[in-house]
Amino acid sequence: MPGATAPRTDPAPLLPDASPVRVLGTPALEKQDPALLRELYRRLVIGRRYNQQATTLTKQGRLAVYPASAGQEACQIAAALALGEQDWLFPSYRDTLAVVSRGVDPLEALTLLRGNAHTGYDPRATRTAPLCTPLATQAPHAVGLAHAARLRGEPVVALAMLGDGGTSEGDFHEALNFAAVLQAPVVFLVQNNGYAISVPLTAQSAAPSLAHKAVGYGMPGRLVDGNDAPAVHGVLAEAVERARTGGGPTLVEALTYRIDAHTNADDATRYRTDDEVAAWREHDPILLLDHAMRALGILDDELVQQAADEAEALAARMRAEFHADAELDPMALFAHVYAEPTPQLREQAAQLSAELAAEAEVQH
Questions:
Q1: Cβ neighbours of residue 259 under 8 Å, at least 6 residues apart?
Q2: Starting from the edge strand earliest in sequence, which strands make up the sheet with 250-255, in order?
Q3: For 195-233, what is each residue's pLDDT tens digit?
Q4: Residue of 48, 244, 271, 319 marked active site
Q5: Catalytic residue of the set 43, 102, 114, 262
Q6: What secondary structure does DSSP assign to 65-85, as a single string?
Q7: Staple partner for 166: which of 30, 162, 178, 275, CB 3.0–4.6 Å?
Q8: How would you classify the pairing of strands 158-163 and 186-192?
């Protein structure tokens, strides 16, 4: 047939695993590095306490909003640990814990959610993009940065984190298409926690899995148990190494669950049952790793206490620093909005400056 061509690539190697990759409860567990398992456990415990304390701060009015990642900590921590120091992380608004695990100060990571600044840390210094509230818009940015780094000959990999809701956005599809065509060193991690706010996955996609979407763009798709910390780390580390060595992008879908509501402004009981949540609590990432490590004899009371003490120390620091009102410069509101301020922005800045000057004059 004129113009007809065979498939450009064999789709079989691009298809995701028939069932989610697992390590815990399988023979692969015995091949894991005990030091890695201990570090994953320590970070999971600290991360859970971080989520709990941040959620409490919203109830006290110290944070404007907090999208908790309780139940998803394995994805968050594995993402950070899979990256090298030279790599970049592109988080969504729910990925605060990944940002903290990347090395960003825990208090600075919450500055945006407190409403005090556009972002609380230096993206260039931390090689971590600002927390992204618009769904999936960070994905094309990750592709652009990774492609530019490769053109400069830098061995940089970008990891973009999204939720299942983000896969319904045009930016997600554009990012995957460009990444595959350019063979950009990017890893896309989709944390499929079952709901985009209140919209279940079944109302978003009819695909066998979100990982299957990778085949349509010409990249491998991987499916992993998102609550199995060493499995997520292994799949992501493999994808990062593949990208770094010229193998191109990978789409990873991690099956997990959001234990808490979407944010403190959401009532999750309106769209999911207590039985559903209870079933996922039995598949808690900390519980799973705890049981596996005890079976191997590499989790002792000393490590358990050390992790708990570190977690409580972090929570105490968060309480102390967030109960003190920050001293803010209102004029900073106009910084870092545009590289070259627009006429409207300059007009607004001048108006606020005049109001602040008038207020100061009255007070004196």
A1: 68, 70, 71, 277, 280, 281, 284
A2: 88-90, 158-163, 186-192, 250-255, 221-225
A3: 999 999 999 999 999 999 999 999 999 999 999 999 999
A4: 271
A5: 262
A6: -----TT-HHHHHHHHHHS-T
A7: 162
A8: parallel
Collect all residues with Cβ–Cβ distance below 8 Å to 41 and sequence separation of at least 6: 229, 286, 289, 290, 293, 299, 303, 307
CB 232 within 8 A of CB 75: yes
Would you state the pLDDT for residue 323?
Answer: 86
**For residue 255, which of 307, 194, 297, 195 has the smallest C-alpha distance?**
194
Q: 126-173: per-residue pLDDT in tens?
A: 999 999 999 999 999 999 999 999 999 999 999 999 999 999 999 999
Positive or negative: CA dihedral 184, 76, 258, 136: negative
271 belongs to the catalytic site = yes
Give 7-23 as a DSSP string.
-SS-SGGGSPPSS-B--
The catalytically annotated residue of 94, 127, 141, 258 is: 258
| CA 274/CA 270 separation, integer angstroms | 10
pLDDT tens digit sequence for 257-277: 999 999 989 999 999 999 999
What secondary structure, in 3-state letters, does 196-235 show? ECCEEHHHCCCCCCHHHHHHHHCCCEEEEECCCHHHHHHH
The CB-side HSE value for 311 (13 A sphere, CA atoms) comes to 21
| Total Cβ atoms within 10 A of residue 223 | 24
Residue 222 phi, psi (nearest 5): -125, 140
